[in-house]
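Section 5.1 Outputs to date
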Amino acid sequence: MRIGFATIYSWRPHVEHTWYLAQLVQRAGHEVRFLTCDGDLSACYTRELRDGSRLRECLQCRIGGIRSYTSEGISSLGALQTDNSLHEVNAEPWAYSSASTLGRFESPEDYQSSDFESLVKKLAPAVQKTYLATREWITREKLDAVCVFNGRIDVTRAIFEATQSMGIPVVSHERTWFGGGIQLLPGEHCLGLATVWRMTEQWSSPALTRAQAQKAASLVAKRFLRKNQTEWRAYNQEAVEEAWPVKSGSRKFLILPSSTNEIWGHPDWTSGWQSPLDAFDAVIEKLSLQSDEIVLRCHPNWAEKIGKQDGRLPEAYYSEWARQRGIHCIGSHEVTSTMHLIEQCDAILVSVGSAAMEAGMLGKPVISIAPSVYHRAGFTCNVHGRSQLGNLDALMATHLFVSSEQQRKIARQALRFAYTMVWRLPQYVDQVRAVTTTQFEYAQGAAPQRLIDLFMGQELQADDDTFDASGSVGEDAVLDQIAVRDWGALIELPAAVDIKIDTQVCRRGPYKLVDRARNMTGIGDR
């Protein structure tokens, strides 16, 4: 086989992961080719994200790109035929997701704005050019399959669509949630949920071993102890534990909204609600909740600048809704511990936020108003449209929503979900190890055939397919520790086995200085 690897943006650690995967393919006896950008595009996500000049941004991207790892088999977008008359295509919809994220848009009105439209118009020509160049690259290099980084953001989406249009297998790769392994999705770009849904359903029933359960619980333990140093964004790190802010309500209902700009428009993530606020109102009415029983916690992400854009749009959207209904709202800039709020509440309402995982492990009822990575894992109450409001009936049976037996079931399913997402779904978990957010080490012993099989069969297999066939005794022991919040014990995992590091995953020659300089600068899109 001859497999093409496309990595246009030189964000850490994605080019390094591309090179690692390409080496696996070569070790299996196959050929590799690369596609990059040498400052060939009229506009792109990176340049729109930041305030730097085109000269500076393009130079930095080229220095950190695939040419810093190899000089062989590389094609540049600008050197490929891009005559529009060869293949007419409407590229604007492929720029929607990038424009959405760049503007951090949230409300339906935001997406009808001239700001959104102008971003789409600016990005579309580069998306069109990349689409045509990718088709030419595939034809010229006689590629049998393509591996593309991300596949969502503007020109990476164009590469993904071009590959699919030519009927050859495509696999997208991305950094994983907690850093270990590499996310590889066959036939889907990084937002695709088909593989995630299949795997979370498949592994929602088998019991975890004691060691597996403790590894899954350690994820939440790290968040509670604020030691989650390998997540892409670790929020609320200076959090202060405060009492529930509303004293008069008889129930404690926590709403944790999330930004939708990264997933906006993707069918897998689309609910039956016109907006999240419509869902919030419907759930509140169904559960007969009073305003003094509800707290809305704005996402700490909205207090951060991403590139040159702040989070004022989502913050205003949700906080104004809360103000109009007399609901207590905690702003994104406030240091109130979200984790402590979850501990104190009786139930939470989420759209797609990852806080569902820790709430679930604590046995809290989790009401999900939209499709997500976890809604098929068995620990959420799904209300993805008005027709599913009846699913809330079970939560209305008791004053505090669920019994202790139900809480245990929720915690068990959340524990299994966490293990699936971090140790089954990612690939090469034992070989690709996150040291920090952007620094990785690579153990020898990865099986190249696993990647080749993924290209050929287009179906992901669990990186760890073991489970406890004898029952749930191991899980129960860990659930008991979670119940008493024994985070210190849960975070202490067995020492890792000594490994032989693969020293070939590194930049060449003088480019080895690139990462030393980068480690003194900010991370990615911050």
